[in-house]
Amino acid sequence: MVCIAAFIILLIVGIFVAFISIFKPKVGKRYLRTLKKSWSCFGKRITLQKCETGFGDDVKNNVLSKLIIRHPKWVKPVSAMIEIASILIVVITVWSLIEGAKAGLALYSLGTCNVKHAESCTLGSEVCSIDDNTEAKNPIEYIGLWLSDWGEIFGAIPDKFRDWNTDNFDVVAIEIKNDGKPGAIDFFDPGCIICKQSFQAQLDSGFFENYNVKLVILPIQDNDGNFKFANSELIARYIYAVNKYEQKTSTDSVAFKIVKRIFTEKDKENRAYLDAFNDFYSSDEARELLKAWLKEFGLDDRAVGEISENITSNEIDEILKKNNDVVVNNIHAKGIPTLIYNNKKHTGRYEAK
């Protein structure tokens, strides 16, 4: 085990030796001789053969040679410590390689290197993550959660070769119909700042005129049912209730106007509506403001009353449940916005081509 650990250390040290050898070639030559000997022993160890070079013993002898003269009683415990340290180095290296492979596969298949918390992955797209807050209470549960991550990763790999036809997804949405245009589905949360940026980019690029778009509002919640953003569920319920009431299919619909106002406008205190709903408005204040918007957008008192009653209906409950199931179990999204267009899935903020 000592020779394996020594080989690992030599590889790491090689980064610095390569620089030093530019000025001192002899150092590089000595390093290469040692590395070659180490590799010979390492190769035999990993193939379960006997290491004939004795490189591991050479390493220990070099470390212990001075110690045996000054403190002979320390030789055995220090020798044991070297063995233990070698085992730890090898275990940590193997574990790091496995975790690195896991992160790489997760980034490839799911768009994030962190399966449980997509936002914490700096290599992936910017998203508002759909977090899994399950915590392991003991080593057995930790292993189970770790293996479940692998299951999600391998389960999502076929998605990379899938034909993402929007007609294959049964969702309830605000439809922006443009006959003859290709289909697109946009999953977003009205409290997500990345969704706001994505929506603004779509407006600026003419996305809603160039595609037959389905807007799917998905209030992000964890596996305990807690919502990520305050009032996002209330907003989603109002938008779906309005959409059901008017059944319009254009950017002139009241449902679309609500989304656009939240993502592009500010309130009388000069606060972006998204920030105000998330951080300042209570549930009652948000409810009253949404009712006022409905009247401002042309609905009468009877319509506003009907919509307000309908937001708590079983039908709206089923819509939210159905759309969430599609996002989590069919699309395997770990964060939103998630868009489907041009027969591909796109994770993160929309970027106009």
Structural commentary:
With 353 residues, this protein is α+β, with helices and mostly antiparallel strands. The protein folds into three domains: 2-66, no CATH class; 71-161, no CATH class; 164-347, Glutaredoxin, CATH 3.40.30. It has helices spanning 2-23, 25-46, 55-70, 75-110, 139-156, 193-205, 207-210, 232-246, 254-264, 273-279, 283-296, 301-310, 314-330, and strands at 128-129, 174-176, 183-188, 212-217, 335-336, 338-341, 344-347. The strands form two sheets. A five-stranded mixed β-sheet has the order 2-4-3-6-7. Strands 1-5 form a two-stranded antiparallel sheet. α4 packs parallel to α5 (139-156) and α8 packs across α12. It is elongated. The two termini are 53 Å apart.
Task: Please describe the structure with a list of short key phrases separated by commas or semicolons.
13 helices; single chain; 353 residues; Glutaredoxin; 7 strands; two-stranded antiparallel ribbon; alpha+beta; five-stranded mixed β-sheet
What is the CATH C-level name of the largest domain?
Answer: Alpha Beta
Provide the structure class.
alpha+beta
Number of strands: 7
Q: How is the CATH topology of the largest domain named?
A: Glutaredoxin
Q: What is the string of SSEs from the N terminus onward?
A: HHHHEHEEHHEHHHHHHEEE
Q: What characterizes the major β-sheet?
A: 5 strands, mixed
**Share of residues in helices:** 55-70%
Question: What is the CATH architecture annotation of the largest domain?
Answer: 3-Layer(aba) Sandwich
Q: Tally the helices.
A: 13
CATH superfamily of the largest domain: Glutaredoxin
> If strands are numbered along the chain, what order do they take across the biggest sheet?
2-4-3-6-7
Counting structural domains, the number is 3
- Uncertain runs are none
Question: Looking at the structure, what is the overall shape?
Answer: elongated
Mean pLDDT: 83
Kindly provide the radius of gyration, computed on alpha-carbon positions and rounded to a whole number of angstroms.
29 Å
The fraction of residues in strands falls at: 5-15%
